[in-house]
Amino acid sequence: MSKLTEIVYCGIILLLECWFSSSCSDKGTPSAITVNITCDRNLYLYVDGKYLGGDVADAKQKHYLTNEIMPHSHVVAVRCTASTPPWQGGILGSFENGLVTDTSWRCTTSAAYGWNMRSYRDDDWPMATSHGANSPSTFPWGNIDSIDKKAAWIWSSDNKDDSEVFCRHKLVKECTEEKQSYFQTPKSTRDIAIQGFLLLKVRVAGVIECGLKCGQNSACVSFTIQSSDIRGSRLCELHNVTTESHPQSVVRKEGYQYHEVVQTFY
Ligand SMILES: *[C@@H]1O[C@H](CO)[C@@H](O)[C@H](O)[C@H]1NC(C)=O
Ligand SMILES: *[C@@H]1O[C@H](CO)[C@@H](O)[C@H](O)[C@H]1NC(C)=O
């Protein structure tokens, strides 16, 4: 959404609650990206359900696969089967858009039909377990130079007994998942301000502009704005704390109204 659309949209809905989309995309990855990925031992790489590449990756031999992921892609899915007991499985990869294998992935040991497709709901899959950093001291793989240092060797929680895993991650944050709404909390919010924890103090035309400023600042979780009875511009203060997280910094300030960011996940 363009900024103008956002303003209009918020204005139409109502002043107290207005919706923002943060750094997200419903169109998937904006451009083609490359991935370097390996696993111990047989890797199958999918994007939005389509097989992209794989075969014996053999992390122990420092082999890895390089693939290009087309623009407008949404979900990456990886299946890996370990070699022989003791299995000791691990998947390690880095993507050009900054995504790396880590504990924000989800991994399961048995997957249902469609497990690698975009529409598949993986909410009930466990989060991945890290079995070591991409570093020379990580046994038995050591480090893989072409894969980002921030990547971790992921698997299910038990990488000695689980011989096969299915892991997934989104390539972009989708707008339908997260919306921010700025609102006046049910508690009293009038004549309240926050002392300190100030990120920015600006003059704005109204609450929507103040909310947009907050939306553009990733540290902003609340803001206070001078009431509308002041003619012309109004003071807008962005904060990185809330009245709840820092009750000791709440002060009475006549003519100010406090708003807070609420994130809703779908
Ligand atoms: C993949 O490996 C190549 C060769 O080492 C490197 O130039 C590139 O930056 C790597 N890409 C990613 C996404 O890790
Ligand atoms: C809030 O921002 C200030 C700088 O303005 C910083 O010193 C402080 O650590 C931040 N506090 C929190 C809770 O993020």
From TrEMBL:
Coiled coil: none annotated. Residues 175-263 form the Apple domain. Gene3D superfamilies: Galactose-binding domain-like. Residues 1-25 form the signal peptide. Keywords: Signal. InterPro entries: Pan_app. This is Apple domain-containing protein. It comes from Pocillopora damicornis (Cauliflower coral).
